[in-house]
Amino acid sequence: MHKENDLTKNQQIIFDLIDKSPEPLKAYSILFNVQKKGIKAPLQVYRALDKLVEMGKIHKIESRNAFIACQNSSCQVSKATAFSICEMCEKITEISSSSLSKYLANFKDKDGMKYSKYNLEFFGLCKKCR
Amino acid sequence: MHKENDLTKNQQIIFDLIDKSPEPLKAYSILFNVQKKGIKAPLQVYRALDKLVEMGKIHKIESRNAFIACQNSSCQVSKATAFSICEMCEKITEISSSSLSKYLANFKDKDGMKYSKYNLEFFGLCKKCR
DNA sequence: AAGTTAATGTTATAATATAACACTATGTAA
DNA sequence: TTACATAGTGTTATATTATAACATTAACTT
Ligand SMILES: [Zn+2]
Ligand SMILES: [Zn+2]
Ligand SMILES: [Zn+2]
Ligand SMILES: [Zn+2]
Asked: Which one of A115, A116, A129 would you mutate to disrupt binding with B, by most B Cβ within 10 Å of its Cβ?
């Protein structure tokens, strides 16, 4: 029987690394960190990252080309993500606000179109850096 | 006297190209297109792009590494941008909705923090592709 | 067991972006 | 007008991010 959320070996290694990291990780920094576990080539990393993103276990911070573990279980279905990014210290936090997600999921553009998939990145200074 | 919004030669060439384009342009496609005008190296393109983004004349579509002319004059101050992206045909439109921009500018995260700078990318199917 | 699909390993290469340094143009102020 | 400061340019080299192509192996389905 197929378990929907079982990770393969490479996926698990890479997910564990990202999940433990206090900050988003870049693909080649992931590669460097997992070479001792036998993952030698960029493609092995990118393939695992693609799947993990697809599953919603991690998200890509597009403006930083970096990957962060999902901090909020609902993204596994929605692919609707929001982050705050500190422009001083680069601290990145996933925002989990039901009012925000409701507002965005119900937002209609001028053609009346709604979008269930989106990515929002807020920029500013975090608590410490203010 | 310094005119705040005068573009330099390279900036003007590159802005004109992007502004005329019906679709977002990537840096190396820009480079290819302006080589006949004497812009020969990636850095010349990236430097102009950086300035144009800073001025708000163009925006970067982060999930596509592509650049689009601002379709809405207010961004020149705010750096608060929103786009809809068709996942079928890649048509990209800048969203100009005062209710959306008000909502996002007033959004407070769980620390009570507000953000005047953000980038939002909606994904779905455009009118034609539905 | 045979067929199918998903994941892996590997080499090579494409696409995106920046570092460093010398030089030029433009604006400001003695 | 000369000196100074600042912003933009040209150029070469290189760093960083991501994918193509192909052979192989593992896992699931019938
Ligand atoms: Zn999430
Ligand atoms: Zn900070
Ligand atoms: Zn704009
Ligand atoms: Zn479309």
From this structure: A115
Closest alpha carbon to B120 in A95, A76, A130, A25: A95
Phi, psi of B121 (to 5 degrees): -120, 115
| pLDDT, tens digit (0-9, with 9 covering 90-100), for B51-81 | 999 999 999 999 999 999 999 876 776 799 9
Selected for mutation to probe chain B from A62, A85, A103 (highest B CB count within 10 Å) is A62
Range A97-118 average pLDDT: 95
Domain ranges for chain A? 9-124
Q: Six-digit token pair at A4?
A: 């929907």
Q: How far is the CA of A80 from the centre of ligand 1 (A)?
A: 8
Q: What is the pLDDT of residues B7-24, one digit of tens each?
A: 999 999 999 999 999 999
CA-nearest residue to A117 within chain B is B123
For residue B29, give how far its alpha carbon lies from the nearest alpha carbon of chain A (Å): 20
Task: Supply A90's token pair.
Answer: 């680069």
Tell me the pLDDT band of B5, cut-offs 50, 70 and 90.
low
Report if CB A7 to strand C is under 7 Å: no
Q: What pLDDT does A75 receive? A: 72
Q: Which residue of A has its CA nearest to B122?
A: A118
Give CA–CA dist A107/B99, Å, rounded.
9
Please state the pTM of the whole predicted model. 0.94
Task: Please report which residue ranges of chain A form alpha helices under DSSP H.
Answer: 9-20, 27-34, 42-55, 75-78, 98-106
**A115 and B123: CB-CB below 8 Å?**
yes
CATH number of A9-124: 1.10.10.10
Q: Are A33 and A82 in contact (CB under 8 A)?
A: no
